[in-house]
Description:
The chain is of the alpha/beta class.
Amino acid sequence: MELQTLLTSIEALEIKGDIGIDITGIESDSRKVAKGILFVAVRGTVVDGHTFINMAVENGAVAIVCEEMPEKADLMGNLTFVRVKDSAFALGMMLSSWYGNPSQQLVLVGVTGTNGKTTIATLLYDMFRKLGHKAGLLSTVCNYIDGKPVPTDHTTPDPITLHRLIAQMKKEECEYVFMEVSSHSIDQKRISGLHFDGGIFTNLTRDHLDYHKTVENYLKAKKKFFDDLPSSAFALTNADDKSGLVMLQNTTARKLTYSLLTLADFKGKILESHFEGTDMLINGREISTRFVGRFNAYNLLAVYGAAVSLGQKPDDVLVVLSDLHPVSGRFQTIQSPLGYTAIVDYAHTPDALINVLNSIHGVLESKGHVITVVGCGGNRDKGKRPMMAKEASKLSDQLILTSDNPRFEEPDDIIKDMLAGLDDTDLAHTLCITDRTQAIKTATAIAKKGDVILVAGKGHEDYQEIKGVKHHFDDREKIHEIFDRQLTTNH
């Protein structure tokens, strides 16, 4: 593609060199640059792409988009330099142009909020496929192109991967794409250049403060997503969350709400909850689902609201909702042959932990004990560690603090930070077992018939990250191994 064609999608402040040259691709990582490539120098949170301009040139870049012209730009041969106000934003806009603006040719819906993004995006993807549409999914757990998995590392991939995936989805005739939109991706403009037809807000509680520094900054990042939605899109928000209506303040999109507590476009009511699922009313219609807990009732309402907002018939949507299964590692129940229940959940924020434990108590109705196994990730928001421990202690009969993904921290130091949130009463029913396998084994040894074990924090993850190395570790596998042994011993 000619450089000047690409430049029509952005605002250039200054141009040096020939814009009639041919470009063979776009890169923001100088190591991936080859002959004919346009290199975009993006200021990242850790490194500044401007420091790698020389390396990109050595590797064959023919044009550079940057926010600051290099001092010796005039002396750098036949190179073309384009100065822009914001190269991260420009990168997304040019990538969209490069691939022929695929997001404008399909229906793209983004889901943002602290908890529930994966569940809602995945259920919408499953639902639209069951309704006979080709669909794509961009999520934490995995990306899918109409049933075909494409592995992922981040909630929202880097812009180059993201635009390439959406182009692939368009090429394979996906009509709908459902996508988790993280606060990082909004703040870093990783979603720049994408045309959204809808946005869904779940809730907002403390998370990612290692990055955003304050809850207010975190909220602003989420809100920006709704502020930027086109007027042709819908903005669906949780009216029961204190930040829910804030998301709608400045959007020009069609404003819609869902709620369990107040009047809303999509109103729900829980009739009965058990470990096999929840019976609920949605806009006055009764439905039995395989999902447990109040937080999942909100997720189902959001899915219903989004599907109806996208033109699906309410009755068809309810039929599919009753047939959908929970997402891997999200309130995943495993029954022990000894008559107790183990639940694996991704809850890794204080609020998510409270939601899951409240849902367990809602079903148990004081008929059994709750044993919680939980840790906190290393090199992340330290402030939530004592809060996580305190909430887990308040809502558990026995608490076992253990290792999560320690990354480059010492697991025992992380546990110490968690212990700081506990008083003597809490400590009386708390154990510290650093080895996660042993922690899970101990929980199963303590549990009696009718009890519930919650193993929280890692959910779908099948690894434990220690000193930069990912070792295979899956909470669900560990539990199944223990329960299989129980089965053989009992027989």
